[in-house]
Amino acid sequence: MKKAVRGHAPDADALKERDQDLLQLLQSLLGDEIQSHRHGMDMLELVIRPESASSVSRLLRDSEGLEFDYLMDQTAVDWLGRREIRFEVVYHFYSTKHNRYLRCLAPVPESRPEVSSLYELYKAADWYEREIHEMYGIRFAGHHDMRKLLMYDGFKGYPLRKDYSMKGRQPLIGPGSRQES
Amino acid sequence: MEVSQGMVEPFVTTKLDKIIGWGRKYSIFSYPFVTACCGMEYMSAACSRYDMDRFGAGLPRFSPRQSDVLLVVGTINQKMAPVLRQVYDQMCEPRWVVAFGACTVSGGPYNNYAVVQGIDQVVPVDIYIPGCPPHPETVLDGLIKLQAKIQHQKHEV
């Protein structure tokens, strides 16, 4: 087995070997919740259902041997025209106890863009989810406050969706805007 | 301005506009509205190596009510625009606005949904200083051009 050098991408076989026991543990704990899995170029990836995102995360956080106690990142991808299910919410977990990473992907259909919120489990999810909501228009069921995080209240549309016009400009707000004068 | 000599006492003839302009252009109190990386370049232009004080603009006032030149330094996004306008509205006449850097001139590299494409949509601009960021020399050139503008304009008293 080749040793992974810091700063270089470790080769696929080494990663597979590294994550083998993690995968077995996850399969035994989560069972049918895992729709599929993949050995990504940096960490193990699980595909889960959007409505069970919070229950899966609770297991990931609290189960012995997993202890994914740190939500490193949460974001979304718009696969417009590339995939059948348009959106995908991406979670990056890290276990400070076991020094292990895990990526979870939840495909979200455009017809019902809703995911269960992780806010109750990880306080870090609060602003991630608000940002995803304003940028992609994906709702988070169970989140306490879905106001916009970065944009202003009058802003219409979801600017990081692929069908948001590149040249789309919205009118200025407040005093001095051309509408007022 | 002319100094007459050969009379009993030397005296100066000038126009009121000219003497007020002369006074105002060498006592610029600027308000730096710094929002982004151009701020570093502003600091460089203001500090001892380039020293804006040589041109009489050495005293930044951190209150718009005490200043007469609004230096808009850095990206202004749509959410920030009302704030910039409010700051401008708080300044006393006479007042001038300098757009410092590509972002304030035209939106610069940020041609997107969030950034105002030129602050002249929000406040009237007197001098545009291009560059990403502008050299301190460019800044001083802009300052000198602003002074020329102040010198040659009509001054209400």
List the helices and strands and how they pair.
The complex is a heterodimer of chains A (181) and B (157).
Chain A: H1 12-18, H2 20-30, E1 36-39, E2 44-47, H3 53-62, E3 70-78, E4 87-95, E5 100-108, E6 114-116, H4 125-136, E7 139-141
Parallel strand pairs in A: 2-5, 6-7
Antiparallel strand pairs in A: 1-2, 3-4, 4-5
Chain B: E1 2-4, E2 11-13, H1 16-25, E3 29-34, H2 38-46, E4 59-60, E5 69-73, H3 81-90, E6 96-100, H4 102-106, E7 127-129, H5 136-152
Parallel strand pairs in B: 3-4, 3-5, 5-6, 6-7
Antiparallel strand pairs in B: 1-2
Helix pairs in contact in B: 1-5, 2-5
Word description of this protein:
Chain A has a domain at 30-141: 2-Layer Sandwich (Beta Polymerase, domain 2). In chain A, β6, α4 (125-136) and β7 (139-141) form a beta-alpha-beta unit. Chain A starts with 11 loop residues before the first helix and ends in a 40-residue tail after the last strand. Chain A is an alpha/beta fold and 181 residues long. Chain A has helices at residues 12-18, 20-30, 53-62, 125-136; strands spanning 36-39, 44-47, 70-78, 87-95, 100-108, 114-116, 139-141. Chain A has a 5-stranded mixed sheet with strand order 1-2-5-4-3. In chain A, strands 6-7 form a two-stranded parallel sheet. Chain B has helices at 16-25, 38-46, 81-90, 102-106, 136-152, and strands at 2-4, 11-13, 29-34, 59-60, 69-73, 96-100, 127-129. Chain B is built from 5 helices and 7 strands; from the N terminus they run ββαβαββαβαβα. The radius of gyration of chain B is 17 Å and the shape is elongated. Chain B has a 5-stranded parallel sheet with strand order 4-3-5-6-7. Chain B has a two-stranded antiparallel sheet with strand order 1-2. Chain B has one domain: 3-Layer(aba) Sandwich (Rossmann fold). In chain B, α1 runs antiparallel to α5 (136-152) and α2 packs across α5. In chain B, α3 (81-90) links the parallel β5 (69-73) and β6 (96-100). With 157 residues, chain B is of the alpha/beta class. At the A-B interface, loops of A face α3 of B.
